[in-house]
Amino acid sequence: DRPKPLAGKKAIVTSGPTYEPIDPVRYIANRSSGKQGHAIAVALAELGANVTLISGPVAIDDPQQVATIHVERAEEMLDAVLSHLPADIAVMVAAVADWRTTTSVDQKIKKQSMNQPMALQLTENPDILKIVGHHANRPNIVIGFAAETQDIEKNGRLKLERKGADIIVANDVSTASGVMGGDRNRVKIISRTGTDIWPDLDKHEVARNLAALIAEKIS
Ligand code: C5P
C-alpha cells in the first residue's frame, strides 16, 4: 500500500464546463473535457483525501474513488461548492462560463426574419474561485487554473492575487498547443514563491504531481 499523506483531509474539486441556458434547447459554454479536473480528483483520493468532485456536463465517467456531484450552471456549481465548506483543499479546475443570460429561458426562442441581428443580454457569473479564495471558511490550500493564450505567466500571477489563490496552474490553450480536449498538458505552477515550469506531461501525471505538491504543502 502506498502512503496516504492526505488521509483525513477534505478536498473539493470543480471540473468540466458550465452550461448557461439561453432557452430549453440552447446554451453558452466554454470548451472543457473535464479530463484534467477529474484526474486531479482521483489523484487526491489516491493520496487518501476525502474528495468531492463538482462537475459540469462532461462525456467522461464519474471516477470511482470520489463523490461526484453533477451541476449545469455556474450558480449551481457555486452553491454546491459552498455547501461543501469547510474543506482543507479546493482545486477549481472548471471552465466556468463568464456570463449567463438575463432573459427568461422557458420557451424556445424563435428564429427571427432573415438578416435581423439577434441580441442576447448577458450578466456576469459569480467567480467561484475568487469567492472561495476570500471566504471566511477558506480552505488551507486554494488552487486555480488559468487557461491563457498569451502572456501566460503575467496573467497567471495577476489571477493568483485577484482570486486569493495559493497556486495558479497556468496552461497554454492556444489551438496550436493541442491541450484543449487532449490528453497532455504543459503547465506553469505559479505561487508566491516563484514559478515552476513542468515539462509536457500526460494529464494524469500533472494531476499526480499536483496532488503530491498539495500533500507537501499541507504537511
Ligand atoms: O478568470 P479565469 O476564468 O481565467 O480564471 C480561471 C480560474 O478561475 C479557474 O480556476 C476557474 O475554475 C476559476 N473560475 C471560477 N469561477 C468563474 C470563473 C473562473 O471558479 N466564474
Automatic annotation (TrEMBL):
Cofactor: binding details: Binds 1 FMN per subunit.
Residue ranges occupied by any DNA/pantothenate metabolism flavoprotein C-terminal domain in the UniProt entry: 6-216
GO MF annotation: an example: FMN binding
Any one GO cellular component localisation term in the record: phosphopantothenoylcysteine decarboxylase complex
One GO-annotated biological process of the protein: coenzyme A biosynthetic process
Segments forming a coiled coil: none
Catalytic activity annotation: N-[(R)-4-phosphopantothenoyl]-L-cysteine + H(+) = (R)-4'-phosphopantetheine + CO2; (R)-4'-phosphopantothenate + L-cysteine + CTP = N-[(R)-4-phosphopantothenoyl]-L-cysteine + CMP + diphosphate + H(+)
Family: In the C-terminal section; belongs to the PPC synthetase family. In the N-terminal section; belongs to the HFCD (homo-oligomeric flavin containing Cys decarboxylase) superfamily.
Name of the protein: Coenzyme A biosynthesis bifunctional protein CoaBC
Organism the protein comes from: Agrobacterium bohemicum
Gene label: coaBC
